[in-house]
Backbone:
């Protein structure tokens, strides 16, 4: 299936450069920072900023990490992350099932493979293909796995992406699966944002940093080329060149047997992209639908997921719908669609998955997954239930081999139930293959769903995980988590770290499904864009107030946590609603919303927040925590966490905010991991340490002990 929409529905778009200054980019003209006395902290690897970071890290470590309790928690979380009993998720490549695996002995990981017969066993025999730790030792590097693309149909040659220290920037190297070795003088892409993609064994699409002017103002590729084996990269033929103000340019070949096609994608912003069919003569034909539509092509079908009403074939299809038509007929000018999904006030399309003969729909109904099966036909498609699907929890479906079978992988989980992985043939009961271990005692807890009322009357759902015998006296240490952006939905998931670090201690855990997310489709996302951003924060505050009104907790026992766009959320909670919270954790955040569009990938998010260099600043300033901070006000204790290697959201956001608050005498801690990229950590040891710091800080502040 081709779904080339590079605006990847969140801040987690996979690309980057590991420096504050984007080589080859076409940055916006920077605003004057002379009045910002903390601008020096934006120098990511400068000696003075790093000395400041090390001093702050040491202070935080001394306070939080020196006790036996911390060491035990860190060890417990590390054991969970390193557990050999975790489910090894697999991807079928040719005749084998591949998995990337990290544990205590393999901190950077193994890319390994097995057969389906072996995979069914409790302890499969695995064949190591690439040992990343051994590769790092041999090359003196700190590679982090970024993924693999193997050429169909023989799957002997693969393009493997590796990142230094976990940054978004990566390199691409060619690998021979038949010999399990790197291809000498094979395809190689130097470190930058971008990728290689197979056309055939001797030809690839390449979109990367080709030098000055070849990157967008967001720091992503602006040019895609066709590159022949054995020729210099600078001789690769230009396929498409976008504008400097675009977000991301890419191309790919759909290798589905009998339906081989080439596509070029021009992403202007999140949820704003153009898709082109590339002919054998190199000419491009635009798929003539609105840019807001998510477009995918599978075999003979074109599927459109709508984010605004769309008029075609003599009728108007509502936003949030999924509609289908014959791809070749559409290219020929016909506009006859079939409705596959139409949203209601309480339902939205979470995802869809193709098998060889069927389409599986995954729908959210008040943030609870429901699966159904569609079978293509002339006119209305045949509909049936997904046999044997669980009735509660988060469900995810992915194809085993969409070219060859109707089998799917089905995962099911919730906050208290370890994830299960099943193999399901459409129409038959799923076969449970793997179950994640129990990492914490959940027998004393229960999951509930509640609804808070936001300031404008909107009904806002949230999940609550609490002890069964919870006394509603307002004393329970409670952690509220949120995100609220980029149409990302937060659904229940089992986390051994949250269970061990919070629930098992008797803490209450809540997750808010606020506007800006995707829980109720595009309307839920669009309701909190740009000038309406405040609605996401009002929703989150309403959930906090509901927890207090129900006497689940009280201000001094209520803490919050969020990262990335969720870090912007918690930063605004800290500055706009300080009276509601007893502790705040702000992770890999955006905070200086005047500067955000000039730092790393920030320009790519202006469709979400607005352009601070225009009149948009009039409303953006109302949710810029760095500017909302008032040294005269009281704020709850806060912990800011980021990564030096985060080349997506600049670490300067967290550095500057923490420094400003510290200099004003506020109760602030700061911790910056040297590796890790936007994920915050590059291996399980770092992840365990970061989690233990956050949970220890929150428990210290909220438990009253």
Residues:
């Amino acid at each position: 299936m081709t779904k080339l929409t590079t605006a990847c529905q969140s801040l987690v778009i996979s690309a980057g450069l590991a420096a504050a200054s984007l080589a080859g980019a076409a940055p916006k003209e920077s605003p004057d920072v002379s009045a910002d006395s903390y601008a020096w902290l934006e120098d990511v690897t400068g000696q003075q900023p790093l000395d400041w970071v090390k001093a702050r890290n040491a202070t935080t470590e001394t306070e939080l990490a020196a006790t036996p309790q911390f060491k035990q928690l860190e060890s417990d979380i590390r054991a969970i992350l390193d557990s050999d009993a975790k489910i090894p998720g697999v991807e079928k490549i040719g005749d084998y099932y591949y998995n990337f695996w990290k544990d205590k002995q393999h901190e950077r990981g193994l890319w390994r493979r097995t057969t389906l017969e072996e995979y069914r066993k409790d302890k499969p025999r695995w064949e190591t293909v690439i040992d990343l730790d051994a590769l790092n030792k041999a090359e003196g590097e700190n590679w982090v796995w970024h993924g693999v693309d193997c050429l169909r149909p023989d799957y002997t040659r693969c393009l493997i992406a590796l990142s230094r220290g976990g940054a978004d920037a990566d390199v691409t190297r060619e690998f021979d699966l038949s010999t399990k070795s790197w291809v000498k003088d094979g395809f190689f892409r130097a470190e930058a944002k971008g990728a290689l993609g197979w056309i055939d064994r001797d030809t690839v699409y390449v979109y990367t940093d080709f030098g000055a002017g070849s990157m967008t103002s967001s720091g992503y590729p602006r040019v895609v080329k066709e590159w022949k084996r054995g020729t210099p990269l600078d001789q690769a033929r230009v396929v498409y060149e976008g504008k400097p103000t675009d977000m991301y340019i890419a191309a790919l070949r759909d290798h589905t047997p009998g339906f081989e096609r080439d596509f070029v994608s021009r992403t202007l912003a999140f949820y704003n992209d153009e898709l082109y069919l590339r002919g054998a003569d190199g000419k491009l034909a635009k798929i003539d639908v609105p840019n807001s539509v998510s477009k995918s092509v599978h075999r003979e079908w074109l599927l459109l997921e709508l984010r605004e009403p769309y008029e075609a074939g003599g009728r108007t299809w509502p936003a949030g719908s999924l509609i289908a038509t014959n791809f070749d007929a559409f290219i020929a000018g016909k506009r006859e669609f079939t409705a596959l999904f139409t949203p209601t006030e309480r339902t939205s399309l979470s995802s869809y998955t193709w098998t060889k003969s069927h389409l599986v729909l995954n729908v959210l109904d008040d943030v609870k997954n429901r699966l159904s099966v569609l079978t293509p036909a002339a006119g209305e498609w045949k509909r049936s239930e997904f046999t044997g699907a669980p009735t509660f929890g988060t469900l995810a479906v992915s194809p085993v081999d969409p070219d060859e079978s109707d089998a799917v992988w089905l995962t099911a989980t919730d906050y208290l139930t370890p994830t299960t992985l099943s193999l399901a043939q459409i129409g038959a009961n799923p076969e449970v293959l793997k179950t994640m271990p129990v990492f914490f005692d959940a027998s004393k807890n229960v999951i509930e769903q509640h609804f808070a009322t936001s300031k404008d009357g909107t009904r806002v759902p949230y999940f609550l995980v609490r002890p069964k015998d919870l006394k509603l006296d307002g004393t329970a240490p409670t952690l509220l988590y949120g995100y609220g952006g980029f149409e990302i939905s937060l659904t229940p998931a089992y986390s051994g770290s949250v269970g061990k670090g919070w629930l098992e201690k008797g803490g209450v855990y809540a997750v808010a499904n606020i506007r800006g997310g995707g829980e109720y489709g595009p309307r839920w996302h669009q309701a909190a864009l740009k000038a309406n951003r405040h609605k996401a924060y009002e929703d989150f505050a309403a959930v906090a107030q509901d927890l207090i009104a129900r006497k689940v907790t009280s201000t001094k026992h209520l803490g919050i946590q969020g990262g990335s766009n969720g870090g912007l959320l918690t930063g605004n909670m800290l500055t706009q609603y300080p009276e509601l919270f007893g502790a705040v954790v702000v992770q890999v955040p955006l905070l200086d919303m005047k500067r955000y569009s000039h730092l790393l990938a920030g320009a790519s998010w202006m469709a979400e927040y607005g352009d601070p260099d225009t009149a948009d600043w009039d409303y953006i300033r109302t949710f810029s925590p760095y500017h909302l901070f008032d040294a005269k006000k009281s704020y709850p204790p806060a912990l800011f966490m980021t990564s030096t290697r985060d080349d997506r959201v600049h670490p300067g956001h967290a550095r500057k905010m923490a420094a400003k608050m510290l200099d004003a005498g506020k109760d602030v801690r700061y911790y910056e991991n040297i590796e890790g990229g936007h994920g915050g950590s590059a291996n399980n040891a770092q992840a365990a340490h970061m989690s233990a710091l956050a949970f220890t800080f929150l428990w210290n502040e909220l438990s009253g002990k």
